[in-house]
Amino acid sequence: MSFQSTGKFDLVICDIDGCLSPESHAPINESALSNIAEYNRKAVALNDRPLVTLCSGRPVSFVEAMCRFIHNTKIPCIGENGVWLYDPGSNMFEMDPEITTEHLEAVHEASKFLRKKYHARGVTEQPGKSAAVTLYHPDTEYLQSILPVVQDELLDQGWPFRVSMTWFYINCDLQHVNKATGIARLFAQTDIDPSRTAAIGDTLADKFMADSVNFFACPANADPEIQTSAHYVSPYEEIEGVLDILQHLGGEQISW
Ligand SMILES: [Mg+2]
Fold this sequence. Notes:
single chain; alpha/beta
């Protein structure tokens, strides 16, 4: 399955947390989200604008739900920082074939190890991940304080993880899987031309997205460091910023 528009871009690959939904656990702005759905319906009906799909570190079931909310019926979205592709056209989920049984065992062992060490201190694991361990604690400063320790502990065990921090979570992801490998699989499956794609992100992990596409944009709330990779930074925050970026990409005539 592919998608082509008569405009400059065929596809916009959008992060979720801090872009389409608030960075915090606050409610999602459903009227703005319905604007994205309307925008996507028009993309499919008129072929005059790039379609919006998703690339997120969230568990793939959350990404699938968001994909259906925004009425992307054509192009796969990416969950769990590249671990999964979900194709809304065929309803198929595909884990990166480069993830072996040994990798999944390392994830399981790391999860047990971190639970044993940090559960009593109030650190919980985000449910629903298949090949990554994501840690949460209500006190973000505490979570930040254990980041280097967790990094060293996983390294000492010889497990192949990349440990990074988003605003509220520690992500322990398999080293060889990231948003860029997910996007490469998406391109391979859809014949979409990378030079006709754009991405939207707000944290450093989204550098993998910026490096995979022709045009990268951020909402105003994005980490200042990732903003240096952007061709356009919206003056608006989160989903309002995404709507502004879509207008910027599509030109004045694009509406929802
Ligand atoms: Mg984000």
